[in-house]
Amino acid sequence: YPNPAENYFYVPTIKNNPIEWVTIKDVQGKTCMTINALQSAIIDISSLNSGMYWVELKTSGNTTTTKLIKK
To answer: Do the Cβ atoms of 11 and 38 come closer than 8 Å?
Structure first.
């Protein structure tokens, strides 16, 4: 959150289930950004154009995809 976001969005982390990587893809499926071994729960998306994106979060036991709107 927040969603929609302008320059940053927050990824909630769970202590016993760390995030291994975050991938942001545009609506065509093109990878726009990949962050490995997430050190911070705040993701800087200021370099992305306005529009809709898919955010994939990979943890040790799961991969979750959610929609993100960039203002």
So the answer is: yes
Residue 51, beta-bridge partner list: 70
Instruction: Characterize the bridge pairing of strands 8-10 and 19-26.
Output: unpaired
69 backbone dihedrals φ, ψ, rounded to 5°: -105, 125
Contacts of 15 (CB under 8 A, 6+ apart): none
Tens of pLDDT along the chain (71 residues) come to 688 999 999 887 777 778 889 999 999 999 999 988 766 688 999 999 999 999 999 988 889 999 999 99
Whole-number pLDDT of residue 48: 96
Rg of the Cα trace of the chain?
Answer: 11
User: Alpha carbon of 57 to those of 21, 38, 44, 63: distances in Å?
Assistant: 6, 10, 15, 6
